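Issue 218. Parser rejects a valid record. Input:
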Amino acid sequence: MSHILRREFLAGVGMAVGGMIIASNTMSGQNRPNPQYTTTDIREYLLSHSPWVDRNNTVDTVKSGDPSRPVRKAGVSWFSSLYDIQAAIRAGCDLLIVHEPTFWEHAAGETSWRNRGPGNAKSKVLADSGLVVLRAHDTWDNWPEIGIRDSWAKFLGLTCRLREGTALRWTAVYEIPEIPLCDFAQTLANRIYPLGENSVQVIGDPKRKVCHPALGVGCVVPDQEMIDFGADVLIMCYDGASYWSCRERLVESGAAIITVEHGTSEIPGMIALRDHLAGQFPSVEFVWIAEHPHTWTVQGSA
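Output the parser choked on:
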């Protein structure tokens, strides 16, 4: 699929994943003529609607730029790679909202790589452009119905949720018509292809029948609890599921495993965030950006 077609598909996915959520505008400035919003306003909206987040201990902070500047156009991306940042600048964005760290460190300050190695070039581009970068991670991970987990499930066609995990909206098990594992894996591979990943990796008997898939939020992958709740196939990302300590252990517990890239499992949720914010901040144009490097696979032959 060409890059242009992929973008067009993602625009459609945004409508499908997030279109139902633009129902009301609850911001205090909604009745002002031509209201001007800032990054601070957007961050405050996300935090004020996320009671599960500790404001004093969250990575959802501004990583670069002046958050008091008016925002007329904002990019939304899964990861603020240098290429996403450059795309946002070319598009005329004042703000880039991302889910993962800008400087490769899951910490509020992101200091380890900011001023060395590839961080030097990224820091210079951000400083020269004035682009503001805001992380929306702790808030959007657990946002009900349209956050990371639930948007991922909807994108995969998992609409019949049987049970959630005991921790706040991290994992859940679903029900589907019984299907051979190989066919279910093929269905998932077809669905994620437009997101930039051309395959899934599977552990388990291809002919095995499955009907209770489970998934989680990014690196918080479905684990033993989901199997105890009846899951027979676990959908997880590589970043949260090393082979011997996680995937193989869960196979011995009786589940089949389907693995995708971290970003693949969270992109539908970030597209939903773009659509949701567009409804809450109508004077801001929100655009989807997905320029981070994607993986591709080579299959060996005899």
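Fixed in the parser; the record now loads. Confidence is low (pLDDT under 50) at residues 1-31.
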